[in-house]
Amino acid sequence: MAEVQTVQQQLVIDTERCIGCKSCAAACFYSHVEFPALRYEGSEGSSALPAVCRQCEDAPCVAACPNDAMYVDEAGIVRRSPVRCTGCRCCALACPFGVIDNEITRREVAKCDLCADRTPQGLPPRCVSVCPSGALKFLEITQGVREAGYVLVSGRTLHGSR
Amino acid sequence: MPSPSDKAVPRCLLCSMHCPIGASVDALGHLHTVFGPELGRDQGACVRALTAARLVDVPERIFAARSGGQATSADAALRSLVSVAGDRGADGLAVMLDVNRPLEGVLAVAALCREAGVRLCACAPLEDLPLVRAGLTAGAPFEQIAECDFVLAVGDPFSSHPAVARPVRDMQFGERGNRLVCVDSAWGRTCRGANQAITVSPFKMAGFMSALATACGAESVGAALGVKSVEEICGMLDVPAASVASLAAGLKGAKSPGIVLSHSLGRYANGAAVAAAVKELAAAIGAKVWPLLVSTNSAVLPALKATFGSVELAELIRDAEGGRIRSLFVIGLDPLSMLPAKLWQTLSEGAELLGWAGSLESDVCGQARHVLPLAFPWEEGGTVLGPTGKPAESPAWLAAPPTVLTLKDLVGKAVSYAGVASAPAPGVDALLERAPDAAPTEELIGPEILEASEAGEGEALLVGASEPQGYTGGLSLASSNWQRRLAAEEAAVLSLELAAELGITGRGAVALTNGAETTVPCRTADGGEGRLVALPAHWDVLRELLQWRGADGAVEPAPALVDIRKAE
Question: In A117-135, which positions are buried (b, 16+ CB within 10 angstroms) versus exposed (e)?
Answer without folding.
Answer: ebbeeebbbbbbbbbbbbb
